[in-house]
Amino acid sequence: MDKKNLEYGSLKVVSSDDCGNAPKKKLLQELAIAFAKNDQIFILEHLKDDVIWDIVGNKQIQGKNHVAELLIQMEKDRATELHIKNIITHGSTGSINGTIVLDNKKSYTFCNIYNFTSAGRTSKIKKITSFVIEVK
User: Fold this and answer.
1) What is the pTM of this model?
2) Which comes out higher in pLDDT, residue 119 or 95?
3) Rounded Cα–Cα distance for residues 52 and 33 (Å)
């Protein structure tokens, strides 16, 4: 599997070439980059107003406004690298996993599962389930 390296300002993104070969895969890749860059506008425009974000073992956030509040809190954690390993989509669901490295040198492995309102290209995210583990 070929890898591609992209630069987004101070963020280095490493992903496989096939991560963007379908519209939903491309969207999930863009969302992962947006979360790493804390691009709140991009993230929020893809969420339903009553979205549920379940960060397993940590908290569950309900509503776009509460997600926005959490994103503001996350601004202090700047990412320097994002390694995307897999993006899988089928119908109205999708998943992405990889590793993110913060500027404080902490690394986290993550898997996000997305549920969309429909299988269509313009559908909004109605639920995110995130599994995040610090890599020691």
Assistant:
1) 0.88
2) 95
3) 20
